[in-house]
Amino acid sequence: MPGTNLNAPEPDDRYDIEFFWDPVCPFAWITSRWVEKVAAQKDFRIDWRFISLRLLNKDRDYATEFPPEYEEGHTAGLRMLRVAAAIRAAEGRTVLGPVVTAYGRSYWDKPKGSGMRALLSTPEHVTEVLVAAGLSTDYVTALDDPSWDAELEAETELALSRTGRDVGTPIITFQPAVGGLKDQAGAIRGGPPSSFSFFGPVISRVPSDEDAVRLWDAVTTLATFPGFAELKRSLREVPQLNILGATGEAPETEDWQGGHRRGHLASDRGTESA
After folding, report:
1. Is residue 12 in a domain?
2. Are residues 269 and 167 in the same domain?
3. Among 29, 152, 214, 219, which is least packed by CB within 10 angstroms?
4. C-alpha distance across the termini of the chain, in Å
5. Is the separation of the CB atoms in 135 and 141 below 8 Å?
6. Which class for 9: exposed (0-12), middle (13-18), buried (19 or more C-beta within 10 A)?
7. Is residue 24 a contact partner of residue 56, using CB atoms and an 8 Å limit?
C-alpha cells in the first residue's frame, strides 16, 4: 500500500469540525472524547485529520529537549498515523472515527502497569485496533512504510498554518454553519472560508454531556472574538486516564513547559542530583 498522495487532502465542507490528531497525545485523546460528545448533541460531523508530533519535532534533539520516553512514543504515533493514512486513501474519511476510538481505548483505557506502552503501535497492537474498528488487518503493513510520511508532514504543516507553530496537539478547525459566528470566522487566516482554528482546548478530564456543550460554546465564543489569541496556564491536572493511574477525586497537578512536564528532562534530573 504505497503512499501516493503527497499533499494533505483539501477541506471538505460536508464536515463541521476538522480534528488534527496524534494518537499518542493524551490531551488529544481526552479532547477527542469531548468533541465526540459535542458532535452527538449538536449534530456536527467530524473530519479526523493527522498531525505527527514526531515529524513536527524531527529537527529537535530528543536526547536533550524531551523526556527519555518521548522519542519512542512520538515514533509510535507516527507509525499508527501511517496506517490511518493508508486507510483513508483506500476507504475514505468516514471510517477514521472508529479508528481513533479503537486506538485510544486500546491504550488509554488499559490499567497502569499493564506494559501497554512497550506494545504501542506494534503489529500485534495495531491488528487489535483494526479488528476493533472493523477494518482489514492488511493495513498493518503501512506501519513501516515511510512513503506515507510526506502526506503526514503536509497535513501537519496545514494544521500549523492555521494556528502558528508554537502549539501542540490537538488542533481543531470549526466551520460554523450560520449566523454571526460564520461572519466573524471569515476573518481568521489559514483555514477554509468561514472557519476558525485553535490549539486545544487542553483538558485533563472528559466532561459530562452537559458540560461538554457549555465548554464548546465558551471555547468557540473566545476563538471567534476579534483579536483573541491566547488564554493559558502551565499548571495542569495529570490526565484522568487509566493508563496513568490518575482517575481519583483529587488529581495531582503538574507544571508543564515546552510540551512536557517541568523537571522531566535528563538535564533537569542531572541538576537536581548535583
Report:
1. no
2. no
3. 214
4. 51
5. no
6. middle
7. no
